[in-house]
Amino acid sequence: MAVIDSDVLVIGAGAAGLFAALTAGQRGRRVQVIDHANKVGKKILMSGGGRCNFTNTGTTAANYLSANPHFCKSALARYTPADFIALVEKHRIAYHEKELGQLFCDTSSKAIVRLLLDECAQAGVQVRTDTAVEAIETIADGWQLRTSNGVYTARSLIVATGGLSVPTMGATGFGYEIAKRYGHSVLPTRAGLVPLTLSGKPLERFDGLSGVALEVEAQCGKASFRNQLLITHRGISGPAILQISNYWQPGKELRLDLLPGTDALTWLQQMKAERGASELRTVLGEILPKRLAQRLCEQWLGDKPVRQFDERQLQTAASLLNDFPLTASGTEGYRTAEVTLGGVDTAKVSSASMESKLQPGLFLVGEVLDVTGWLGGYNFQWAWASGHAAGQAA
After folding, report:
1. pLDDT under 50 in the chain at which residues?
2. Nearest to residue 241, comparing CAs of 292, 189, 193, 190?
3. Any idea where the RsdA/BaiN/AoA(So)-like insert domain is (predicted)?
4. How much is the pLDDT for 28?
5. What is the CATH number that goes with domain 196-331?
6. 373: Cβ–Cβ under 8 A, 6 or more apart, which residues?
7. pTM, 2 dp
8. Homologous superfamily, domain 3-189+341-393
9. How far is CA 380 from the centre of its chain?
């Protein structure tokens, strides 16, 4: 069987892997990319509702979760959102800002995959799909990998295998296994940017409200996010909940401000003075979805005219509206999670080059590392930045 030799071999043809490959190729390195899936960039294609939220203009290290919050700073500083935007503009891809610095393609995520493949082609990078790794070993001058499509040798090996989220797209823990084999510890993993499930009474109380959406401020511990919440038939979702899910753990309580930016007590007192004869559900239904307003009154607040609420009852109702307690029972898991929290501990990885401090010539990039971004383009920016750092050094 023929041996395919290169300077750099990348396992994983996703965002981080392709970016590492094209960066190394632009330096004149001979680069091969292999992936066990049948096509490249599957998660890129499905991201952002098919439009790919490819970066966030406000990216800082504060937008990431990691056991070492400083680790991502170097790579993010050396490859910025502006750098990737320039590349998008070079390829004449039309884009728009949706909200909060989130940039999306105007048409399709396919444009970003095409950009990456075109840049790889221009840099002489060879990309091969349907290629499963069967064995990895170190040799005198680098690496030898036996695959379902032959033997590959390379001076440098870049692991860009992603995390465990969306297993139907081919996600596996293979990258963690490689890291462990060469002495790296892997921090506990869990689903991130994921809908939360309710059970028992909390779920029963929301029965029939599936599809109701509203703006909330969701809080868990010190973290809080103001954005949309969506009630589902199994629990709660929407951007605010996906964001807070990264900070939630079983047993932790969530707090929801159902009227963010509004002092509920002042508003209720005003309603009592001006519209005392109106039912609470009626006035509440003017600032919240009507079905939710009705359910809140039935289950929690009381179903009567506003003038019948005394001051103490108004305070209780206001407290619930501005600080609604909710106990989630779990998450929807990796099946629907956008990212994986945890991963390869960054303590033994160079923040400048993504190279292992334990095994020369081994690089780890993207989601396989213990670096997880917020919702809104931050995880793609980490893919570009970490891939760029490794591609510059491998």
Report:
1. none
2. 193
3. 190-339
4. 98
5. 2.40.30.10
6. 63, 64, 65, 339, 379, 381, 382
7. 0.95
8. FAD/NAD(P)-binding domain (3.50.50.60)
9. 9
